[in-house]
Amino acid sequence: MIPADRFGPEKVKPGLARIRLAFERSGHPEQGFRTIHIAGTNGKGSTAWLSEAIVRSLAGCAVGLYTSPHLVSPEERIRINGAKIPERSLAKAFLKAETLGDPDDPPTYFEKMTWAACDWFRRGGARLAVMEAGLGGRWDATTACHPAVLVITTVGYDHMEWLGNTLGRIAAEKAGILKPGVPLVTGRLRPSARLVVMRRAGELGCSSWELGRDFDWRPCGNGAAIEVFLPGLLLKRLHVAMDGIFQKDNAAVALAASWMWASGEGVSAASFASAAADAVASVRVPGRLAKLSLRRKARCWVDGGHNPEAARALSETIAVSKPWGRASRVVALWSMLSDKDASGYLRELSPSIDAVVTYPLLHERAADAAVLLKACVKAALPCRAAADFSEGFLEAVKWAGRGGVVLVCGSLVAAGEAYKHLAGAAF
After folding, report:
1. Neighbours of 271 (CB within 10 A)
2. How far, in Å, CA of 311 to CA of 336, rounded?
3. Euclidean distance between CA atoms 38 and 257, whole angstroms
4. Is the alpha carbon torsion for 162, 164, 170, 173 positive or negative?
5. Integer Cα distance of 65 and 132 in angstroms
6. pLDDT (0 to 100) of residue 126
7. How far is the C-alpha of 54 from the C-alpha of 279, rounded, in Å?
8. What are the distances in angstroms from CA 291 to CA 270, 298, 387, 415, 418?
9. Is 132 helix (H, G, I), strand (E, B) or coil?
């Protein structure tokens, strides 16, 4: 068994040479399957889970899923037909991956994890895998695999130290996943980002379906269900299990990507419609505005969004969907990593919360307490500071009071701590 600290923290080293060398030295496990390859600033995790659920019931073979980061344990990242890779198998694969690199330029944590996923998919007989890019796209390790369908969910401001400080530059990095002739599905891209992505798609001969142009969704009935318009297919009365307008966008993108793949495989419209309805009605992604079931009376929700765009979407969802119904007070148990826009995040979320309890994340890149408190003051939100998650949760519950809600938010690291402390590894 590998000691826990061998699974992190993650280091970023641009380039595909290391993962390609590991693939070459191990008989090219990545060549045994095709991928639905998903990149984007926000929404790619939910889109990946939804896509996998749809295609799994249609593929007639084993289907892999590779996502990041994990919330509680690394095994969450690699699944075949929904089942996580066993802990011992991942540890063995991780150690094997370390031997496949150049000692002078060893593979990163994410590259070793990507190799482990591809090796596991090969061993499990997967012919298709849904793979989420970790960072950017152009030099992300997942880009060394072989896609059947490409997806870019959104383009926003995040990881700017690596991807650039304009939407155009960030979009160019995301568009680095594009391959000649491989079809593309996109979410709602801002004009400057869309220009870059579509220009690159044209250069490479990638046909494309765009949300809001080639496909879309709209509410139907009393608003609890939606209709999704795909090229050549209308899906009626779909119930999306996850709350929020942004999750309906994610569902539409996942449906489009899955239909693009399925129609090319000869899957009938009727079979696809049935699989689609079952998938979107059942999939709930941990840490994405998820309710934690607690024995105590407190109501607790978790959302791992970590940038202003995600906070805006969360705030809109709270206002429109009212996921927890009425609440006497909503207290955010909030923390972030130091490379994130703490003030921007709280600025967007502040209309939907009443107060904040801050605490330091258990992470080497945790934001300083002073930075978090300064952001609270700037957002004009009442704030209290705690020493750690456990202390912060008790304080937030007390402050929320009877009929109140605790919202753990600001980072997937924070979401992971919530599951560890409050709900266990239940996924």
Report:
1. 13
2. 12
3. 9
4. negative
5. 8
6. 97
7. 6
8. 33, 11, 24, 11, 11
9. strand
Residue 9 confidence (pLDDT):
47
According to the model, what pLDDT value does residue 294 have? Answer: 75
Give CB contacts under 8 A, 24+ apart, made by 209-213. Answer: 209/183, 209/184, 209/185, 209/256, 209/260, 210/185, 210/186, 211/185, 211/186, 211/187, 211/249, 211/252, 211/253, 211/256, 212/188
| Phi-psi domain of 130 (left: phi exceeds 0; alpha: psi -120 through 50; beta: other) | beta
Q: Which amino acid, 70?
A: H
Q: What is the pLDDT of residue 427?
A: 57
For residue range 52-96, list pLDDT tens digits in order.
999 999 998 999 999 999 999 999 999 999 999 999 999 999 999
Tokens 């999939």 belong to 283
- The conformation of residue 420, written as its DSSP 8-state character, comes to I
CA gap 422, 64 in Å, rounded: 29
Measure the CA–CA gap between 410 and 304, rounded to whole angstroms. 6
Tens-digit pLDDT profile for residues 215-252: 999 999 777 799 999 999 999 999 999 988 899 999 99
* Residues of the chain where predicted confidence (pLDDT) is lower than 50: 1-9
- CA distances 41 to 134, 242, 285, Å, are 10, 19, 17
| HSE toward the beta carbon, residue 379, CA cutoff 13 A | 25
C-beta separation of 259 from 272 below 8 A? yes
pLDDT at residue 3 in the model: 39
| Residue 160: per-residue pLDDT | 62
Collapsing DSSP to helix, strand or coil, 330 comes out as strand
Residues 94-111 as b/e (b if ≥16 CB within 10 A, e otherwise) read beebbebbeeeeebbbbb
Q: Which two tokens stand for residue 416?
A: 């992971």
Residue 420 CA to residue 7 CA, distance in Å, equals 17
pLDDT for the residue 327: 85
Which residues lie closer than 8 Å to 276 by C-beta, 6 or more apart?
Answer: 54, 228, 235, 238, 255, 258, 259
H-run or E-run covering 263: helix 245-264
CA distance 287 to 192: 30
Tokens of 324: 């927890």
pTM for the full model?
Answer: 0.93
Question: What number of residues does the chain have?
Answer: 427
Structure tokens at 359: 């605490």
